[in-house]
Specification:
Elements: E1 8-13, H1 18-30, E2 34-39, H2 45-48, E3 53-56, H3 62-71, E4 73-79, H4 85-90, H5 92-117, E5 121-128, H6 137-143, E6 145-146, H7 157-174, E7 188-195, E8 197-199, H8 212-221, E9 226-228, E10 238-240, H9 241-253, E11 263-265, H10 273-283, E12 289-291, H11 295-302, E13 307-308, H12 311-317, H13 325-341
Parallel strand pairs: 1-2, 1-4, 2-3, 4-5, 5-7, 6-13, 7-11, 8-10, 9-12
The structure holds 2-amino-3-ketobutyric acid (AKB).
């Protein structure tokens, strides 16, 4: 055993995904804990350097998780691994395995960790606006800012998985083995955020249904034409990636006693797809953006709220976005994206 493995560690699953990239970058600068990263794909080289250990493997592999269990002292789990909403519809059963059984495996691991080192393990779980399922556009319009307990009737496998896993987390935190003599209640400190669509200046998402906005921006920046798979008038909430990572850290750091819920809405801005195109074309004048809606993906986005009520997060743990729509594009996305693609096809 080397020294690092007994140091308190943060365990990040789905580390090579969009959120993993940004989270690892920030934690490497600010956290004193070792970072143990897990992903099914090898981590990008730059990212590897920021981690204490990198494990390539699947959260469904028992032996791999047993190894993690035996080698590291984990105090926080950021469980980011998931199959997103579009991808999950192609292989719903596989999505269920990854999204639900995978989460169950991580909750078990966290419970066992807490038992060993004697302190609660913070389990930070990104949920999604996909947990909502609004039946039609008239209702969506009337619904306005949707609160956490309304419209919990998702129409995607991913949404069902996220909603159920929020409940699993709440169960493990507050009711796990409630009839046993040696209950382990309190072993897990489960905290979840229902994220809107996320837009990063650095990475492009894959497998999601809110991907049309980041795809439109990144394609235009590279001088590539883009066919948007939703209607111009479609509206759902979005957020710039740095705000999403800040939210994860704010919720992580909040004292337990201020938290009145286990899953919180947060949001920043809600542009229509047409408004995103207008903003993109102001910066990339030659951008070719067409709207060719795919009825089935469109129906998924239509079932998600146009806006969410994030007052509980604001009140309990001081959530407030730093980037509104103009700042997100003007000070974060466009400068970052221009820098990234500078010298390429444009
Ligand atoms: C997806 O589109 O599946 C995700 C999400 C909204 O959670 N980006």
């Amino acid at each position: 055993m080397t020294d690092h493995i007994r140091k308190p560690a943060v365990f990040i699953t789905g580390a090579n995904g969009e959120m993993g990239h940004s989270l690892i970058t920030i934690l490497a600068e600010h956290s004193s804990h070792s970072i143990i990263a897990l992903d099914v794909r090898p981590l990008d080289e730059e990212l590897q350097k920021k981690c204490t250990a990198v494990i390539v493997g699947d959260i469904l592999e028992d032996r791999l998780l047993e190894r993690v269990q035996s080698e590291y002292e984990i105090h926080t789990v950021y469980h980011l691994a998931a199959l997103l909403s579009t991808r999950a519809e192609f292989t719903p059963e596989a999505a269920h395995r990854v999204n639900v059984e995978g989460t169950l495996n991580l909750l078990k691991l966290a419970t066992e960790q807490s038992r060993w080192h004697g302190a609660p393990v913070k389990f930070i779980f990104p949920s999604s606006i996909a947990v909502y399922g609004i039946p039609d556009l008239a209702t969506k319009k009337k619904a306005g800012k949707v609160r956490e307990d309304d419209w919990n009737t998702p129409i995607t496998m991913y949404g069902c998985n996220k909603l159920y896993c929020e409940h699993l987390g709440r169960y493990y935190a507050s009711h796990y083995r409630q009839l046993a003599a040696d209950t382990l209640i309190g072993g897990i400190d489960f905290r979840s955020i229902r994220f809107p669509g996320l837009i990063s200046a650095v990475t492009v998402p894959s497998g999601g249904t809110s991907d049309y906005a980041p795809e439109m921006i990144h394609a235009s920046a590279q001088g590539k034409p883009y066919s948007c798979f939703v209607r111009e008038d479609v509206r759902i909430p979005f957020m710039a990636m740095p705000d999403a990572i800040r939210a994860l850290r704010l919720l992580h750091d909040a004292p337990r006693e201020v938290l009145s819920r286990s899953a919180y809405n947060i949001t920043s801005f809600s542009p229509s797809a047409g408004e995103v195109r207008t903003i993109v074309k102001e910066s990339f004048r030659d951008a070719e953006i067409a709207f060719l809606p795919d009825d089935k993906r469109q129906a998924i986005v239509d079932s998600w709220p146009a806006d969410v009520d994030d007052s509980a997060a604001r009140k309990d743990w001081g959530w407030e976005p730093e980037f509104d729509l103009d700042q997100a594009f003007g000070t974060y996305l466009f400068p970052g994206i221009r820098k990234q693609y500078a010298g390429r096809s444009r």
